[in-house]
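Appendix B, record 7
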Amino acid sequence: MKKYIDTSFFDLFKVGPGPSSSHTIGPIKAANDFVEKVSGLSRDKLDKAVRLEAWLYGSFASTGKGHGTDRAVAVGLLGEQPETCDIALLERLLQDEDEVYRPAVKGAPKLVFKREDIHFVDGEHDFPYQNTMVLKVLSGSSVLFEKTYYSIGGGFIICEGEKPEEREMPPYRYKNMESLRRIVEKYEIPLAELLLDNEKSLSGNSTEDIDKKLDFIIDNMICAVERGINTEGILPGPIGLQRKAKEFFERSNALENIPDRFLGMLDAFTLAASEENAAGHMVVTAPTSGSAGVLPGIIYFLKNYQKVSDEKMRAGLMIAAAIGFIVRHNASISGAEVGCQGEVGVASAMAAALLAYVNNCDFDRIECAAEIALEHHLGMTCDPVGGYVQIPCIERNAFGAITAYNAYLVASVGDPKMQKVSFDEVVEAMLETGRQMPCAFKETSRGGLAVCSICG
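Structure tokens (predicted):
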């Protein structure tokens, strides 16, 4: 592990199709990378290449059907990118077992794949990461080329045997909350300014370009909420779960009691984005697709009801990103690795920090808000019923948003100096909890609600 954090905002916040960043965005990116590598093979190998295969292991195998991993692999092999993916194409892929697909490989006219070429390998495996995919190009039974990819949460992938991308050393190097605090105090620099300077160094983008990209992320979050509160119907899959964000929004908006109306509206906004994710539509990883309702729900409320400025919202999103960076660097944001505490729990912490910032809290209270939110998600399992990101995932996002708001309130009215537990300690506890959590409770749908519910 690197000694300091060098993650870009736009590595953490990715636009792409739901319902799971590790199961959809990650595989699409891996397939894109594989297509590019295969296109660079020798003319002799490309002439011999006739079939392409994908082998899915771990949680890919146990919940991949419900998460749409097979279609994600297919659409990535066809050249679609996560941010611009044709959702209609994605939804209709692999319906016909006899349909033949030609991957977007240059110079391989005979190379094809079919639905039967995407294999789900259930059971234990020896790969170092839970979500593993092996892609192969074959000539008859002979393997001409293959690569192994790991999807490690939030749409991040690792290609086995390849070193991480080397980036410019950021001007402010931190690895956790405590070191970030020391830098802020040493240089007497506002936290948002520090994070922006690091982003400019890491990405090479100007402040104007970064602002545009942050606006793009925020706009996509808001669009997910707006689509959700204007859509009715049944979500995909055998559960037959009815969307409820639209009705929830309408009923909450009519409540006379102001506190009830506020909570109901926040629930509705979060449910809306989560239902869009469950439908496989475009969302933003925040930090994952499975938790893609928490931050959008909060941001939609802040922009439309509290009229927070664009400038402050961008800065708040940067603060939220720093929380995600620290957790990812020191623990995990993958449900397959640490359970839902690493997804909705981290999203709640990110949202709490954003709320504290836009409401003019200082560094201590921002940390305190994030710590409280994450602390009260410790031990949360990832147990999707039927392998679909629907039950309990959609409502869990709504509760994560409410917890975030309450964590901000507790931090803002309390004295941070009385807080006995630091954010770094909670992150350490989350990692240790995840390590001790049985695999049945980490995205495999083999434990918890997934086996106790009659929907399963």
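Remarks on this record: The chain has two domains: 18-159, 177-452. The chain has a mean pLDDT of 95.
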